[in-house]
Write a structure and sequence with these properties.
The protein is of the alpha/beta class and 430 residues long. Helices cover 29% and strands 23% of the residues. It contains eleven helices and 21 strands. The chain has helices spanning 150-163, 168-178, 183-189, 232-245, 265-278, 293-302, 316-323, 330-342, 361-374, 388-395, 406-416; strands spanning 11-16, 21-28, 31-33, 36-38, 45-47, 53-57, 60-65, 72-74, 86-92, 97-99, 102-103, 105-107, 123-126, 129-136, 194-197, 250-253, 283-288, 306-311, 346-353, 378-383, 421-423. Strands 15-16-17-18-19-20-21 form a seven-stranded parallel β-sheet. Helix 4 links the parallel strand 15 and strand 16. Helix 1 packs antiparallel against helix 2 (168-178) and helix 6 (293-302) packs parallel to helix 8 (330-342). The two termini are 28 Å apart. The relative contact order is 0.12.
């Protein structure tokens, strides 16, 4: 969590009605931990990483810190043009970065739209730069902005699409790459690192923050869900060459552009066996909600190397309220962890981070109990991509006790579970 720090306290930033982002030195930068407003500590700040984006937040007014009183203060108009409406600003940090504080703002209760399915990190301005309240949680460069040459990517993608016109999965990944800019799809076409294997149009949950399917009238999904089930041959045609030739190769079932891959467990089992009949190189991984432990048992037996189980909370009721599961619960998810561990396989938790909620003392206690009992190998520190206030309402977050703070939360986990690894990506195992 160390690195360059601003020489002065960052100023609040806001957006004008035309979308211009300005700084205001009359208030310093603030952040939010589930509604608790504070100034970020200097060690909590990093230069806004390349590849990040800035969002203006409609019907939300920015909150800063009054430099004289040290108390939170609302900015309700453009200080340079009084009376002109303004909006709060948040950062959507590049991959491999995790938030310490969310953006601080007050929402207009009358007609404020739900925020799109992104993460909203606190951001300020100092030394001619934007600064975010977060840290680099994985130094793997696989999705860094400077790793992608768009001209080369376009050439290789179109060449591959032309070469495999009959492979529906490759054609689908081409859209993911060229239309949505999916980093995993981009790396597949560049022949390196982790490649995606989406396979399931269906899901057995109705996650409030699902990025591939949202009900009409809600915030829009960020990408289209796959509309077909590929064959084992189509999957192997993606996976085998990638595993044989790519550096640090991983292929992963379970992507943002699909439902729940365990609903295609038979297909995945046959695909793993086909893949492993042709190559023993690299890691075959599954990203999943972990809902079907019997299916996970079959896949582990077939040769699945690793699993990443998405988890918003280690508290059963919070898990239920977010996932809105159909026929499973957190206990079933934990049995999936047990199934993989019984076969000596690698288990990651894709643990959604929302400052003030993730580090709530009750959540920390529940996660600690889960780790103690089931012994996952790795925790991926992924930011929750969802309107923060809406999420807190969905799970009924109370926040009666002050949160630990993300830095302190992570430090306590390191101390309590020294064998547990942390990062952001699925690690290559072989």
């Amino acid at each position: 969590m160390t690195g360059a720090r601003p020489s002065t306290v960052p100023a609040l930033v806001f957006a004008t009605s035309s979308g211009e982002i300005l700084d205001y030195a009359g208030l310093s930068m603030a952040g939010s931990a589930a509604g608790r407003i504070s100034a970020p500590a200097p060690d909590d700040l990093i230069e806004l990483p390349p590849g990040s984006e800035l969002f203006s937040l409609p019907a939300r007014l920015p909150i800063g810190i009054d430099p004289e009183s040290g108390e939170p203060a609302l900015l309700d108009t453009n200080p340079y043009q009084p009376g002109e409406p303004i909006q709060a600003v948040a950062a959507f940090m590049a991959p491999a970065h995790t938030a310490i504080l969310s953006a601080a703002y007050r929402t207009d209760d009358a007609g404020a739209p739900l925020l799109p399915l992104f993460a909203y990190t606190a951001v300020g301005w100092a030394d001619g730069k934007f600064w975010a309240a977060g840290f680099r949680s994985d130094y793997d460069c696989r999705q860094d902005a400077d790793q992608f040459n768009q001209r080369l990517l376009n050439q290789r993608t179109r060449k591959q699409l032309s070469r495999h016109k009959s492979n529906r999965l490759i054609q689908h990944l081409g859209k993911c790459c060229l239309t949505y800019g999916c980093p995993a799809a981009r790396n597949y076409f560049l022949g390196r690192w982790e490649a995606p294997l989406p396979c399931s149009p269906l899901c057995n949950a109705a996650c409030v923050g699902c990025i591939s399917l949202q009900p009409s009238g809600c915030c829009p999904s960020t990408q289209d869900r796959i509309a077909f089930v590929p064959t084992e041959k189509e999957i192997a045609e993606v996976a085998v060459p990638h595993l044989e030739a790519a550096p640090r190769p991983v292929v992963s079932f379970g992507q943002g552009c699909e439902g729940e891959p365990l609903l295609q467990a038979g297909l995945i089992e046959n695909s793993i066996r086909l893949i492993r009949s042709r190559t023993d190189r690299g890691t075959v991984n599954l990203n999943t909600n972990g809902s079907l432990p019997d299916a996970v048992e079959r896949l582990a037996h077939a040769g699945l190397d690793s699993i990443r189980i998405s988890l918003n909370s280690a508290q059963p009721e919070h898990h239920r309220l977010y996932y809105r599961p159909k026929g499973f619960d957190l206990a079933a998810v934990c049995r999936s962890i047990t199934a993989m561990k019984r076969h000596g396989r690698h288990v990651s938790l894709n643990y959604f981070i929302l400052p003030g909620c993730t580090d709530d003392p009750a959540e920390f206690a529940a996660l600690s109990e889960l780790i103690t009992e089931y012994r996952p190998d790795f925790i991926q520190l992924r930011n929750l991509n969802m309107d923060p206030e809406y999420y807190l309402r969905v799970i009924g977050h109370r926040g009666d006790i002050p949160p630990l703070g993300i830095r302190n939360w992570l430090g306590q986990l390191h101390k309590k579970f020294p064998e547990l690894k942390f990062g952001y990506y699925n690690p290559p195992l072989r």
